[in-house]
Amino acid sequence: MTNFPDGFLWGAATAGHQIEGNNVNSDWWAREQQMPGMEPSGDACDSYHRYREDIDLLADAGLTSYRFSLEWSRIEPLPGRFSRAELAHYRRVIEACFDRGVTPVVTLQHFTTPQWFAAAGGWAAPDASERFQRFTTEATTILDGVEWVVTMNEPNMQAAIMTAMRRMQQAGDGQWQSPTIESDGAGDPERKETSHSEFLTYADPEIGRSFVDIHHAAREIVRARTGAKVGWTIAAGALTAAPGGEKKLEEIRYGKEDLYWEGARGDDFVGVQAYSSQEVDANGLVPHPQNPDNTLVGTAYRPDSLAMAVRHAWTVSEGVPIVITENGIATADDTQRIRYTDAALRGLQAAMADGIDVRGYLHWSLLDNYEWGHWGPTFGLIAVDRETFVRTPKPSLGWLGEVARRNGLA
Question: Which residues partner with 67 through β-bridges?
């Protein structure tokens, strides 16, 4: 038996836009109607209305924590105009967690923003921080009793998307590519400008520094107005250097990750989000090899990436406690999901045995959901019928629930 510490969080994660449905005031909803190549989110999983069922399934399986996000565009549909009804809705989600003995991990902003915020310049606008602080202040009014708050999800991925969208506009290439899915053209020199590796390789450090400042401002509001632990989550690439790629690795990883791990110094925790590993050579990211066990999003089957990411995050953040806020695999084979998660958790436990302070593991995702422009990839512990919204737990949900009940691996 491989045991985890007492009080370790065992759960699953979601994001509002990916599961709630009809998030019509958000920038992503608008983008779905305009960007070639994007499938619409539509009703998504209808979790806006079915959240109690989702929490019940999680709790019944034996999991003890649920990470979900507030939808800023619902709460503040117009600048400075806050919806009391939507705030009350999210408070009911929090209370539903409490009713089932589930620890909520609340993310204030998970990729989406209000359309009015995006139209005013988004995160690049001079008053972006003030606008987010105003929203954060309002959001704290419903966080009584919440112990874990994430200010922003994967700001490094948001910065990479911002950088890439800017390059796409300059190049006149408007074909959407999801941040979670490898392009068929990845590695093709004829399509270098649109390959997934090139698309999300670089994140402008100037944007990153702005995000750090915004996060710190929101962090202080949460600390002043709640008793919650506060941090943010980072997309971890678990990048390694191919021979001759050491210098390029440092360059890419600084703008893509390390600036953000450094920005977590002083936080109560930092969320590590890892799925796969990738090499960097002298020219940049090396495309994932075409192996039979590659995931539905084209990435390599690398459960060891979680421990790699945790060790790197611990070093660069200078010992900030870690919560695994996302880890999982896009696969139609649920036995592969169990194998992947088992191996990832064994690597995580080995890292913890070396003294790394990890407080919890939240699997991505609770549900098969909308993957930012596509419906094909299935990450969920629970399948969802897109016509009827019937939830069907997969064996992996029961397996992870048993791990949680034992607080250890058999």
Answer: 13, 105
Helical packing angle, 155-171 and 205-225, nearest 10°? 150
Task: Give the CA count within 13 Å in the CB-facing half-sphere of 84.
Answer: 0
Tokens 């670089």 correspond to 202
Task: State the Cα angle at 103 between 97 and 104, rounded to 5°.
Answer: 70
Looking at residue 176, what is its pLDDT? 61
- Residue 406, judged by CB atoms within 10 A of its CB (0-12, 13-18, 19+), counts as middle
Could you give the strand order of the β-sheet that contains 284-285, starting from the edge strand earlier in sequence?
239-241, 278-281, 284-285
Q: What's the CA gap between 182 and 372, in Å, rounded? A: 13
Give CB contacts under 8 A, 24+ apart, made by 252-255: 252/201, 252/202, 252/280, 252/284, 252/285, 253/280, 254/205, 255/159, 255/202, 255/203, 255/204, 255/205, 255/208
Q: pTM of the full predicted structure? A: 0.94
The CB density around residue 80, as the number of other CB atoms within 10 Å, is 10
H or E element that contains 182: none
Instruction: Report the interhelical angle of 395-406 vs 334-353 (nearest 10°).
Output: 20
Range name among 142-156, 159-173, 350-364 with the lowest pLDDT average: 159-173
Q: How far apart are CA 271 and CA 321, in angstroms?
A: 9
